[in-house]
Amino acid sequence: MCRKWVILAIIVLIYLPVSIDATVLHVAIPTLSTDLSLSANEMLWVIDIYSLIMAGLILPMGALGDRIGFKRLMLIGAGIFGIASLFAAFASSAYMLIVARAFLGVGAAMILPATLAGVRNTFLDEKQRNYALGIWGTVGGGGAAFGPLLGGFILEHFSWGAVFLINVPIIILVLILIVSWIPKQQVYTKQTLNLKQALILVSAILMLIYAIKTSIYAFSGSMLLIFALGLCLLFGFVRHQLRTTQPMIDFSLFKNKVISTSIVMAMVAMIALVGFELLLSQELQFVYGYSPLEAGLFILPFMIAICVGGLFTSILMNNFGLRPVATAGMLMCALCFFALARTDFDAQTIQAWVWMALMGISVEIALLSSTAAIMSSVSAEKATAAGAIEGMAYELGAGLGIAIFGLLLSVFYAQSMVLPNTLPENLVVEVSSSIGEALAAIQHADPILIQQVQHAASEAFIHSHSKVLTISGGMFLVLSLFVWRALPAQQKLVDQ
């Protein structure tokens, strides 16, 4: 009995840095932008490459775990994650950090399914397993939610490399514990990996996002070609998945309107959660001069609300059902975004916290109601496939949230920036690209010019952030109508 809970502790310990690393850099953007001279495009890649790589590899890595056992998969994943953390901590350029973050995503894509398989294989009693999964989910959600606060605390006392270095002793301890405590498992050597298809999917996603991001700043024929190639790869991937007898993604599940709608809900909710947190942490530091720790503390009500939102969801769904709860969650998100778009985060602190807390609860309602809808709409033999697709949607939503919010912010910032007449021509491009590049470009300029650019950049950022939040509110408003029409009035459970 004791061995089970020791194994769960090991699983939780290895899962914690994986969840934290998804959001820990959000408050570190100003520091990274200064130390590594990051452009706006490079900054987005540093943040979202982690989630995008995870999204593409998480399904085949789960199959790999079946072939070699979750113990070996956890060992390999932890090793890659530890080495990548060390490499990231001492990265001296944007490209080195992006590559390191990509390998962190590879390691995380192995660790995540290995931890789930570990819980499933260790806890054979259903009640104990549900309790263990609850602990696992709490650690994952809490780690991601409190990542910015931890990042702020570390940056308050150490350099940004320490954000990654803290993973290394945890990984070393976990490797020792895995070898000592976790037994070997039965393996399934005939399990299909679909690794080639996973690489095609990852390549398609990265090509599409790279072409869109780059075209925002410098459109060219080569970017159009890369975009077209990405679309072709994505089309070929979907076509192959529909034809093969052992697909990586079971697209037949999308024929169920409840499942397809819930996947959209989960992805959009993650886009909102990650995108909002990233943009707010930048505004607090770049515009209002908050330290990383102060920014993390400011976002704390949003984090806490996400953690406790699950309590409200279960009560509401038991009393009112899926469709009204999911629709209400979407509508509440829309209202919160509209309100936050008109809130001065520095002068109206209490008002900001109230709306952030309500939005955190609303986002969690959307996430958990989508999970409940999916799990109640599939048979037992399809539950793993459906859960894997939802996990992929979560990670893809996180990556897209950073890309979409970041790109919209860049476009509106460039449009809103009013350049001082005295600004030298060689600084125009940098100052117009992002607030981080603007502040870096004029740090050695005349004090009067520095003050003018800082004021103009701050005003442009606030205006742009407000526009992005307003668009997000409109997106959730439309989504709420879609959810109400798409979900059935009475949710029918599939026989287990």
UniProtKB/TrEMBL annotation:
Membrane topology: Multi-pass membrane protein
Protein localization: Cell membrane
One GO cellular component term noted in the UniProt record for this chain: plasma membrane
Assigned keywords, A-Z: Cell membrane, Membrane, Transmembrane, Transmembrane helix, Transport
Matches recorded under InterPro entries: MFS (IPR011701), MFS_dom (IPR020846), MFS_trans_sf (IPR036259)
Database matches in SUPFAM superfamilies: MFS general substrate transporter
PANTHER family: MAJOR FACILITATOR SUPERFAMILY MULTIDRUG TRANSPORTER MFSC, METHYL VIOLOGEN RESISTANCE PROTEIN SMVA
Protein's name according to its UniProt entry: SmvA family efflux MFS transporter
